[in-house]
User: Fold this.
Amino acid sequence: MPKLTIDGVQVEVAPNTTILQAAEVAGSEIPRFCYHDRLSIAGNCRMCLVEVEKSPKPVASCAMPVAEGMVVHTKSPRANKARAGVMEFLLINHPLDCPICDQGGECDLQDQAMAYGFDRGRFDENKRSVPDKNMGPLIETSMNRCIHCTRCVRFATEIAGVPELGATGRGEDMEITTYLEKSVASELSGNVVDLCPVGALTSKPYAFNARPWELRKTESIDVLDAVGTNVRVDSRGREVMRVLPRINEDINEEWLADKSRHACDGLRYQRVDRPYVRIAGKLQPATWQEAFDAIAGRIGGVSGDKIAAIAGDLVDVEAMYALKGLMASLGSRNIDCRQDGAALDASVRASYIFNSTIAGIEQADSLLIIGANPRTEAPILNARIRKRFLKGGFKVGVIGEVGDLSYPTMQIGTTADLIAGRKSPEGSKNGMIIVGMGALARPDGAAILAAARKTAEENGLIRDDWNGFNVLHTAAGRVGGLDVGFVPGPGARDVNAILDSATKGEIEVVYLLGADEIDTAKLGKAFVIYQGHHGDRGAHRADVILPGAAYTEKDATYVNTEGRVQRANRAVFPPGEAREDWTIIRALSAVLGKTLPYDSLSQLRAALMGEHPVFTTLDAIQKAEWKPFGKEGSISATPLKSPIANYYMTDPISRNSRTMAQCTEEFVHGRPSSPSVQKTGTHG
Amino acid sequence: MKRALHEHQPASFAFNADMQARAERIIAKYPAGRQRSAVIPLLDLAQRQEGWVTKPAIEVIAQMLSMPSIRVLEVATFYTMFNLAPLGKHNIQVCTSLSCMLRGSDDVVRACKDRLGIGMGGTTPDGQFSLHEVECAGACVNAPVVAVNDDYYEDVDGAGIWKIIEGFKTGNKPKPGPINGRDASAPIGPALTLTEDPTKPIPKQDFAAAKAAFEKAKAEAAAKAAAPKN
Assistant:
């Protein structure tokens, strides 16, 4: 372990650490543009120059490994002078357009120019001008501002696994571009905007919308996939302006998937902002009291077994817990949170969570994917699998129909009967199995689950120190729903049975809690109560609409696919008369004369934790006990297919997002909406 | 000069049988998994076949080496000897770096422009000649140097390049090398140094005598410097 002195502080770091990393240990921050801890080292911006004693020249600290006895000065006049020189060269061609640049206020170059910039330019020649490039509907480019750090190129190549970005030309003519200016077809493309240290790549949907200092920042949790990405919601007034990732090494590192980042404009459109009641076949605006009265009038006298409730994909734990309580008090056990009919067993927690954990993927040495497409179902998790693949010695087998996952896979087949008897690759100790909703949301789902469990057990993937059995969810509310037991009681109807009985008229009242992904035509003549935040499929069929809050508008608990309990915080208030979901159910319970025993969120949470101790541990993984689950049976020969056909539209929020509509046009239908226009920064 | 793909691109590209065989030989030189190292020689082959590097060629090479097209494009736009636009049959590349400039490359450039009626980077309307300015061709001892396609014409002056162009025009390709009769970089006329017969043994030298003569001369010089001036 080499010992070295940095700014008079002696540190001992692991060999092969760079000076820059060692300086962070010693508490000295070194400015940088091209260096990023999660990308390979490029060493081309030269901003991190430091003075090393006995070295004739300043040293690029990001690329220089430490050596025994080194004496480094990061703030000496010589180091500062070297950086000032680098900064002056960078500013030769960088336009002075900070007032009209979207990066202004959160720009690395702007910040570091404050420290190292010279207050005048000594360069009398013209600045170079570079035509802007088309990179798709999410990334706005202003290539005059590019300082060629190549972070975006390295991100696309290494993390996203879509080597489409590159630097053409050389010297002064170097330009960052995609091949033939095609759009960057990655579910993680939005991250290059965060990585860009200047304003060359900015967010297209967010262009010229707000300045960072106007925004209120709320730390929250993303719900548009089941990964539970940690996000920061930036809002101004009542509007969510943008969503950015927060660092969480266990989940998303510092990445955020495109849908989670850019679907936030869907929170503005098609919102249900007041209650509605269907009168004479037409939905009419109503007051809360009228809506509750309409429900009480219809439900009164209906026996409990003719009432059912279905919870949707984005529903928080508190709302499901409250609705479960209400349904129980009404005498109904026909409740289900598995809209797609997935054969998940709520009684064994290990059977429905991602037991290996996302960070644990890095300890795995082989992977079998069954009926899942992690790239579209959980891009962040897929990035982690790719990270593991890049370390080498990692084999991925796939059963089911998937395309390019950004790492090489071995296609074993498409039918689920291939699961039985599969052997881990030779020498594999920490094997993983990922079972997706494409395998479970089928009539033979329970049999596939049992087969996957058996294969996991046979290959020794279930040990005290390792659990290689994983379920990859697509719905953020699913694990929470299973944890609170939002599933039919013994002998009661599950989601398919509810819909069938509704068609036949056996079920008279259906309570849809944000459930939009069901076949609403099957609801027959049932009286439908829809509680949710968007006028989407469920609301169209509803007889009473109760306006709820979207995930940015409530303090709520979500459980991600790993079984990690996380809390989202309210960034903005729900629009109009919409309310937080659990309060609606609590208010309705009072109207129905079955008042639920809590009056505040803290009381509800206390009751929830008392009943389900799993919610007492926040942000951490609780190991689940391994018990038998699944039901052996025959497996049909239908090929396994991921349930997500269009990554950009999976839920009411993204379906109503204009940005996601553009992405769908461009990436799913292959119709580029933004023609490549040759223009420089001075054009409009 | 901006290096970007040409506006008008052919629809397709395929190596002909000979080039394909050469490409396969080149690819086989690299260890498994490192085939992309062959990208520069393959681009060169494509350029030799087509005269320039086309977009379909870039894509075909990317596929042959299983690497992304953008990586091949990066290489093709980085190296200035890959031509990204169609060229004349004879590509005249005049070196204008230091040695050639001192030895009169300006005259050569002027003569080319006058004779062909095109500027730097231009191609004659009949598609016969292109004119380019290149960095040091690495043959400074024979400056000024002009490369026409793969052949070097050396010790060129204004009149000389005129004759070379004339030769190409009339279909009599001039002989490459120095045009003033030199043998490679040997002097014009009789040799002034290294005149001894190299096959004979070198005559033994009397180092002691040489040293004594040197010491004597040194002492004399010292005495002369010390002597009072009158």
